[in-house]
Design a protein that fits this description.
Helix content is about 50%, strand content about 15%. It is an alpha/beta fold and about 250 residues long. It has an eight-stranded parallel beta barrel, surrounded by six helices. Helix 10 packs across helix 11. The longest helix has 17 residues. It starts with a strand and ends with a helix.
Amino acid sequence: MTRLSVNINKIATIRNARGGNNPNLVQVAIDCERFGAQGITVHPRPDERHIRYQDVLDLKEVVTTEFNIEGNPDERFIELVRRVKPEQVTLVPDAPDAITSNAGWDTLRHADHLQMLVDTFKADGIRVSIFVDADERMIEGAKAVGTDRVELYTEPYATHYAENREVAVAPFVRAAQRANEIGLELNAGHDLSLENLRFFNEQIPYLKEVSIGHALICDALYYGLENTIQMYLRCLDRQTFLQDLQDLPDRL
């Protein structure tokens, strides 16, 4: 089963809108794990507009599943990750003023820099994932710098899913196959949702983990956080999917 890591940035956004500590980010992380999440993801940015650097330190004390810190590896980010030592760091090349991540690394152009980062984090026992587009060259470049995993940037898939899901997923299937061939483990994230997640997961059997925040928190406004997490987990459970197919004639 592909693992679900819940990105709690949007919880911090709501908290920061009014100040104080409501909603309580740490308690939400604890509850996400209690409701079935298999990891917690945060993406601290330099302006701390959602996740604050202190949040990362506080969460380290309570997260009992897998802690994934993602972000642009500037000096402050590197220092924070090395201090916290999460299970995974995901390197994302987003500009400081970016609203959200909008592209993967050019792993060929930035090979030397990425090599240094990978070596630094792996020396601290931290698994490294590099955020990349669904481009086989970029995946091969990530392998060359020694990363453990790549995370596929899935916004293009989500954007074109409604038009033609087979066409939308095709480059991701090819990228995933190439990653598997060269021995890279595979994550995915960005704009995955209840609408498009199950099909993506069905098409890529090598998928280890998805990181989902925005859509999941939006869904939780309607369905509740516990129920929403269970709904996402059901999308990721291939055995459940096969059983649903077997049961379908009985429900028609």
